[in-house]
# Entry
Amino acid sequence: MTFKNRGVTERPSRSVVSKKWTLFLCLGSFCAGMIFTNRMWIISETKSGITRTTTVEAERLKLVSEGCITKFQKDIKLVSKDIFGKVTNTHHAIQTIDKTISNLEMELAAAKAAQESILSGVPISERIEKGELRRKRKYFMVVGINTAFSSRKRRDSIRATWMPQGEKRRKLEEEKGVIIRFVIGHGATLGGILDRAIEAEDKKHGDILRLDHIEGYLELSAKTKTYFATAVNLWDAEYYIKVDDDVHVNIATLGETLARHRKKPRIYIGCMKSGPVLSRKGVRYHEPEYWKFGDKYFRHATGQIYAISKDLATYISENQHVLHKYTNEDVSLGAWFIGLDVQHIDDRRLCCGTPPDCEWKAQAGNICVASFDWTCSGICGSVYRIKEVHRRCGEGENALWKAAF
# Structure
């Protein structure tokens, strides 16, 4: 009985304790849950705030970046406009400077002319008037006689035969529009004894055209180029002729021959030939660039005498820095025209032989323009024989003044 009563007595006691602890645990769990739930809400809001803040900041950054890009593009446009403006201003400044320099050069030239007129005693108005008349004057032809420092006797022999002198030469220029000059450059030593001798000769006769060119046999192509460029800038003529100083020329017949072609553009007239290309070294007329031609040259005028129209002389003047020079000057001239729309005129009267050839033709009424010997590439012993050629094959002095070009 005692055992049962003890058991019955102890069971209610355990049940009471369990309920208290259960109530306490429930209350503690509720409080803990409240605390945990509040904590999570705060964290969630914080995270949401961060997210919202990040999104807003991203949008702001995007707007800022877009604004920066737009501003950058605007800045680029402004810089481009600024650079273009500066380039334009620089170009205008350069043009202004060029005009200023040109004006200064003109003023300097005028001052020099005034000084020369004072020293020479000739009024400046007369000098200017003469210069203007010379620039405005139209000539028919310019004849350039190619010569060398050692050819004084040849020049004198031409002066004594087919080239008018003194007042007759000036009359020829004024009435017929024909300019005749010996053409020569300068020595290797500028202002040396050779140059002084030529200057003294020109002072005596006034019939020498000096070129900015160093004389030399292997420089004939360069000399020919310089001659045409110089002549076309000095005289406004219809034709420009090159002739060697050992050739006899009938000036009136030459003028009449050229006058027949004056309505044709780009005229290249002479005795056309197509000789062999000499590749062997040491021979006369050796062509170092023979491999460019093959066995024979293209058609070109022989070098003793030929004529070209003004447009071709102008072409040489404007392009002389790129025109290639071959050893033989007649080949060089032909090469300059080979790719152009040029009319080649082969006139055998420009390469007659010396008497009796030119004499027979003259008696038949077919007067030659030029006479020389092929064996000598000119008149053999021209200093001594040109007077005979002139007497037997010349057109006569009156023919020149009766001719109408």
